[in-house]
Amino acid sequence: MKIDGMCRKLISTALAAALCAGVAAPSLAAGGYNDFDAITSHVNLKVPARLTLTRPEKDVSTSAAAYFITGGSDPDEKLTMNGEAVSGRGARGSFGVLVALQKGVNTFVFRNGGRSEEINITRGADTPVTITNIRSAVPSFDCATYSGETISLQCTAPSGAQVTATVGGRQVALKQAAATAVAGVPATFSAKTTAGEVDGTRNLGPVTYTMTYKGKTSSVKSAGSVYLTGSGSRLYVEVKNVAASVYKDAAASAFIETAKGGAVDYVTEVGNMYHLSTGGWIPKESVQPLEEQVNIRNRVSDVSFEQAGSGEYYTFHGTANTMFRAYMDGEKLYVKLFNTTGIADYEDGMADGSDLFDAVRVTEEDGDTVMQFLRSGSRRLWGYDISYDDGDVILYAKYAPRVSGGSQPLSGVTIAVDAGHGGADPGAIGIPGTGGAMEKDITLASAVAVQKRLESLGAKVVLCRTGDDDVDMNKRMQITLDNRADLFISLHCNSLAYTKDMNTIGGTEVYYFEPISKSLASTLSANVAGYTGRTNRGAKQSNYRVTLNAFAPSVLVEMGFVTNPTEYDSMTSRNGIYQTANAIGDGVLAVLGV
User: Fold this and answer.
1) What pLDDT, on a 0 to 100 scale, did the predictor assign at position 330?
2) Among 22, 44, 161, 498, which one has the highest count of C-beta atoms within 10 angstroms of its own C-beta?
């Protein structure tokens, strides 16, 4: 995979022309930019500019006492509902109205210019939604259990269907969870079967669900396979995500560490997650069960050191991809390698040649190795990463980026900008439904604008998605690491179910995980909210996958709510996207001390 090709820069011809024509360098003061057309020349997000009802699109029945009606309108014409003016419209005509429902039929007539639309909402029973196929077949990812334990089988199918599941040559009849008054509505079918005895770990393959409904029979296979480990054997797993959270308990009440792709361990208990021998619980979807027995005892036979551009590398040449625990503070970088010995033999001189550390203290504790890299201060430690290469454990310690002066202070700084969702994953659906710009469209248009703004300040910008493509989380994170990015910014749009008055729910919030990311999260949340006139909902710690980078501040920005008409129209407008790009550009400057 060639990262340069995947993440090529999208500098628009308009921006290039503007720069060549001598457009003044942007001011570094907030709001001092004067290159609106260059930054937003690519923006052309569709929003209906005529009267249309999107929720509901047609007459509907509901048991709710209130309903949030949404649609679009001509913003230059008056909009009324049953003769009363509709307030709170977005600048591009999107609107939402929370209406109280009386029992029986409620009629709402909307008028906008020369157009009118009528909708009937009946307060009674909900309009049933029916299906004709099997959905949500379990498991959706490869998972394992032990011989003698139960295997849970489950899918969604039309109410009234007959469903069986076949796994490992055994067929089981599934039972519908609850009777429904209407045939064909989605219903949960489930059953349990006891796993047989095997030697070692065996892949039983996916579960085949077979349904008979209205005289027709059809089958689907689960996306994931079932693995079975013999009662006298160990179940080994390998972390399959670039990064994965490990939790204190099976209830995920607290984080312990971030595991990295390629690490191996064995499981001591299977519940809703796996309990690892090195401590902590890891989600089943984050790891791959292994059929073979794997060595987790790591004997290090040599330690090598290398300086390279953006940081320093310590390679511990060993025999296993062991789990680790690490953190950094103002005085040291702490790294604990589980099931690892031999490094203590190389303690003397490990910091020789380092611009980050003046000493490394190594101790062995019950077969594990703890290293404390003591910081010297000649170069500032920005972050770290741990990876594996066939038994070698590689520690990457990243230098803090250096900023420049003048009109391009970000020269030499690399920033990864990620447009959330894409391809078959549209993300959140906004006020116009699928008839207007969806989250994936808004995030890509915003990412390109942010790229232009940051490049105007001298930064090298890597886009993790350059078109309407499916790019999985692992690839987005790997692109960021491969380019040794100094910052990672993932752009998203927020949403909520239309059960309340969404005119009153909005704002910007930014998520982070690693402590090094908190300042960037707080700054961007305040900036985007302030520049666009939205509420600042603040920085919030969580473990979204793309925030798990420890080598550089990494954040997920929820720019606003696509379910709020005013914010939807702002996020799809050229001015709203321009202000977002300015907010992020100024935020990056502030975080880097410019």
Assistant:
1) 84
2) 161
End-to-end CA distance of the chain: 35
Dihedral sign, Cα of residue 210, residue 211, residue 215, residue 218: negative
Residue 189's identity, in one-letter code, is F
Confidence at residue 1, expressed as pLDDT on a 0 to 100 scale: 33
Report the Cα 540 to chain-centroid distance in Å. Answer: 14
Other CB atoms within a 10 A radius of the CB of residue 2 amount to 7
CA 531/CA 338 separation, integer angstroms: 47
How, if at all, do strands 162-167 and 201-213 pair? antiparallel
The pLDDT of residue 6 is 32
Which residues have a Cβ under 8 Å from the Cβ of 278 and sit 6 or more positions away? 265, 323, 338, 339
Instruction: Spell out a b/e string for 295-316, using b for 16 or more CB atoms within 10 Å of the CB, else e.
Output: ebebebeebebeeeebbbebbb
At 64 the pLDDT is 95
How far are the Cα atoms of 159, 241, 417, 470 from residue 421, in angstroms, in the given order? 32, 17, 13, 7
* Phi, psi of 250, rounded to the nearest 5 degrees: -70, -15
Tokens linked to 87: 């307030």
**What pairs with residue 512 in β-bridges?**
541, 555
Residue found under tokens 């090529």: 8
CA distances from residue 131 to 64, 188, 216, 433 in whole angstroms, order as listed? 23, 12, 14, 21
Q: Could you tell me if 119 and 56 are in contact, meaning their C-beta atoms sit under 8 angstroms apart? A: yes
Q: For residue 244, which of 550, 592, 580, 22 has the smallest C-alpha distance?
A: 550
The dihedral built from the CA positions of residue 98, 100, 106 and 112, taken in this order, carries a sign that is: negative
Three-state SS for 20?
helix
Token look-up 């606003």 returns 560
| Single-letter amino acid, residue 183 | A
Q: Give the closest residue to 570 by CA, choosing from 524, 525, 530, 532.
A: 532
Give residue for tokens 């090298």: 460
Q: How far apart are CA 481 and CA 94, in angstroms?
A: 40
CA distances from 283 to 200, 253, 274, 286 (A): 22, 13, 6, 5
The helix/strand/coil state of 195 is: coil
CB atoms under 10 Å from CB of 553, counted, come to 26
- The amino acid occupying position 439 is E
- 322 contacts: CB under 8 Å, gap ≥ 6: 263, 264, 296, 298, 337, 338, 339, 340, 393
Per-10-residue mean pLDDT of the chain, 594 residues long, equals 32 31 37 89 95 96 96 97 95 97 98 97 93 97 95 97 95 94 94 92 97 97 97 96 96 95 97 96 98 96 95 98 95 97 96 95 96 92 97 97 92 97 97 96 98 98 97 96 97 96 97 97 98 98 96 98 98 98 98 93
* Other C-beta atoms lying within 10 Å of the C-beta of residue 134: 22
Q: In what order do the strands lie in the sheet with 357-365?
A: 324-328, 332-337, 368-375, 357-365
Q: How many CB atoms lie within 10 A of CB 86?
A: 20
pLDDT given for residue 378 in this prediction:
86
Give the span between the Cα atoms of 560 and 536, in whole angstroms. 10
- What whole-number distance in Å separates Cα of residue 35 and Cα of residue 44? 17
Dist CA 279 CA 229 (whole Å): 20
Give the relative orientation of helices 439-456 and 574-591 as an angle to the nearest 10 degrees: 50
